[in-house]
Design a protein that fits this description.
- With 146 residues, the chain is an alpha+beta fold.
- The protein has one domain (10-143): Thiol Ester Dehydrase, Chain A (Roll).
- 25% of the residues lie in helices and 38% in strands.
- The chain has a six-stranded antiparallel β-sheet.
- Strand 4 (105-115) and strand 5 form a beta hairpin.
- It is globular, with a radius of gyration of 15 Å.
């Protein structure tokens, strides 16, 4: 497995900029998701809450949390794909919701748990302004040319 910014410094900044550009015009860009750091084995992201991201009851919508965590894990997989692979697809995801929020910024820290040749497993923790909001696990199948 090769982390795309095998160097440091400017290369890692370039990866963050590239990941944020990839989200423009797609779900990550529509909800305002921002990747803030890409490092070996981890991705950090944030999302400023606004009314459109809340459920009808006024609390954070579960789909907003899943979108933040899943995108972070997916981008982490993308920048850690093994040499020769062509992409990946999600084969399992699980979330445990521990709390909620109504305003402020929520943060996600995604960490590589298993980086194999055929699968990757990522764990993500979503934090709110005052507490942990969710724990998330995502398994990705690595794709190769047939």
């Amino acid at each position: 497995m090769v982390f795309l910014s095998a160097g440091v410094g400017d290369q890692a900044v370039g990866i963050v900029e590239d990941l944020n550009r990839r989200g423009e015009g797609a779900l990550p860009g529509l909800i305002g998701l921002e990747i803030v750091e890409a490092a070996e084995g981890s991705i950090s992201s944030r999302l400023q809450l606004r009314d459109e991201l809340l459920a009808p009851n006024g609390y954070l919508h579960a789909a907003t949390v899943v979108a933040l965590a899943d995108t972070s894990c997916g981008y982490g997989t993308f920048v850690h794909l093994p040499e020769g692979s062509t992409g990946f697809t999600t084969i399992e995801l699980k979330s445990n919701f521990l709390g909620t929020a109504r305003e402020g910024t929520i943060w996600c820290e995604a960490r590589l748990v298993h980086g194999g040749r055929t699968t990757q497993v990522w764990d993500a923790t979503v934090q709110g302004p005052e507490k942990t909001l969710a724990l998330f696990r995502c398994t990705q199948m690595v794709l190769y040319p047939s």
